[in-house]
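Quick log. Single chain, no ligands specified.
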Amino acid sequence: MSPALFMTKRLFIVLCLALLTGVLAACGGSGTPNVPSDSVALVNGDSVSKAQFLSLMAATAKVDKVNKQTPPKAGTPQYKQVQDRVIGFLVQLDELTQRGKDLGVNVTDPQVEKQIDKVRKQYFGGNEAKFEKGLEAQGLTVEIYRLEWRSQLLSQAIYKKVTANVKVTPAQVTAYYNTHKSSYTTAASRDVRHILVNSKSLADQVETQLKGGASFATLAKKYSKDPSSAKVGGKLTITKGETVPQFDKVAFTLKTGATSPPVHTRYGWHIIQALSAVKPAATTPLSSVKDNIQSTLLQQKKSTAMNAWLNQVKKDFEKKVVYAPGYTPATTTSTTSTTG
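-> predicted structure:
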């Protein structure tokens, strides 16, 4: 991945963390102290700084320009949407930081710097000037990039803690397999070839020529209106249940090497020849897929556990967030704004 792409991806994650984590929605309530003049919100008493908010807003405008788009103007609905997304991110990051401490999760400055140093070395040969220039080209600053990495490390560490005890039992794997057995079953198949024509009279003529010893492949290339199979002498591999019923029935009942009389379907008239024996339907045994099933179930259960935890955080903070005037997100319906 190029440095430019890397940086673009990182900023995208910053501004969409709220969507990635899923369900947090900060709501203010009565009894919260006034928001200081240098802040846009208070989260359970913690200030979300106006300087940080303005830095992120400026970064989104720069990224728009980098992508040759016009940043929305202040006062427009589009600008409000960006503002809400940025404030939502900062508030939710504060909520996660507070609840993370309850889990023993605390992202330190050295941890953040370690990740940034890896990027600096991998994509910029360890050159600080080139690194900062690469950030600037994407509308970022080092401070915003640090904030992004802090959010990433925090989110990852919380997920690890919350889902640490999630398990999948062998019985659950077996139950899933039995419920979804059709997904692990391969239908019968067969190699055949056919000639498709528009009329019964032409189909009869082709059948007569075949009975007279004419080459099936030659006649398929000459007469068949199925172009994909005609160019290979009419050959195709069919799976039971995936062709029209009339074709399916004949193709799977012919003896190997036998040729059918004309068969009518909605596509026209077919002459079918069975080239191979029918390969019977087969079910992949549980032993071959149990690891994949376990992985799928484990991810589902971890997602469920994480969503439940996030829902609880949402509930815990419903009355603990308050916004400065003009900064209340449009999606927040029970928030109290105060004068700073």
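Confidence is low (pLDDT under 50) at residues 1-32, 333-340.
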